[in-house]
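About this split. The held-out portion is used to measure sequence recovery: a designer receives only the structure tokens and must propose an amino acid at every position. Recovery is the fraction of positions where the proposal matches the reference. Here is one held-out target exactly as it appears in the evaluation file.
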């Protein structure tokens, strides 16, 4: 059985998907892009600002489920340019204190709404 998790603090889905789905002891969080839900607008600043907004959106969804970044097992990072990797990594790392999750980073030819970074994650309730 699955449970849909939605946070009013994170951007509403822009397609036929849920922000997150809980199945058993696992939470699958959909890819987040740098939309500020309070304004409904894309963050179109530096890659650091975009990445920070993406991480905040993930945090809002995790918190809605009663979790934090400490519960994250794996992240998937999609970037429009690997040239931004170090700058994205710097911001991403600030959200994980000890024992960071597994992850992959993949350069892609395009992302929703033309953004430069999208991140999804898988977390556990254990």
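Reference sequence for scoring:
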């Amino acid at each position: 059985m699955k449970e849909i998790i939605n946070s009013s603090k994170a951007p509403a889905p822009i397609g036929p998907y849920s922000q997150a789905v809980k199945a058993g002891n696992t939470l699958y969080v959909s890819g987040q892009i740098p939309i500020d839900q309070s304004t409904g607008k894309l963050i179109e600043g530096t890659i650091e600002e975009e990445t920070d907004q993406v991480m905040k959106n993930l945090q809002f969804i995790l918190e809605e489920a009663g979790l934090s970044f400490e519960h994250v097992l794996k992240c998937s990072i999609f970037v429009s340019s690997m040239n931004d990797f170090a700058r994205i990594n710097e911001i991403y790392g600030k959200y994980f204190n000890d024992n960071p999750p597994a992850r992959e980073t993949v350069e892609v030819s395009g992302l929703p709404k033309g953004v430069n970074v999208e991140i999804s994650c898988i977390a556990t309730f254990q």
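Annotator remark: The CA atoms of residues 26 and 124 lie 5 Å apart.
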